[in-house]
């Protein structure tokens, strides 16, 4: 399930209302951001209970300050409202998937 988040308040509500979430932060003119999004979405689709939030920093500029973002793309995993894993600029999909799987399995235990 992919959801576009359009405000900082919506972002906080999203991470607080789901135990485990993935957040993808991108910008309009970032070709890498647009290339990474389908890969992250495909990965998250393998875990039906994990929602994906997408934030366009071009529209929600305040998110950079809230999350201390200095470059895009940024992909984050939040668990119980806390940031647990972050990758920026160069996203290692295998490492990201490994971290997501570990946190997902910890919820099942």
TrEMBL record:
Domain Thioredoxin: 6-87
Coiled-coil annotated spans: none
Alphabetized Pfam families for the sequence: Thioredoxin
Source organism superkingdom: Bacteria
Protein's UniProt name: Thioredoxin
């Amino acid at each position: 399930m992919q959801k576009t988040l359009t405000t900082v308040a919506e972002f906080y509500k999203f991470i607080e209302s789901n135990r485990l979430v993935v957040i993808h932060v991108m910008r309009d003119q970032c070709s890498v951001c647009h290339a990474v999004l389908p890969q992250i979405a495909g990965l998250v689709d393998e875990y039906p209970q994990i929602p994906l939030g997408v934030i366009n920093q071009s529209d929600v500029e305040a998110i950079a300050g809230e999350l201390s973002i200095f470059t895009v793309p940024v992909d984050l995993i939040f668990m119980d409202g806390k940031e647990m894993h972050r990758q920026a600029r160069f996203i290692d999909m295998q490492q990201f998937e490994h971290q997501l799987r570990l946190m997902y399995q910890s919820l099942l235990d």
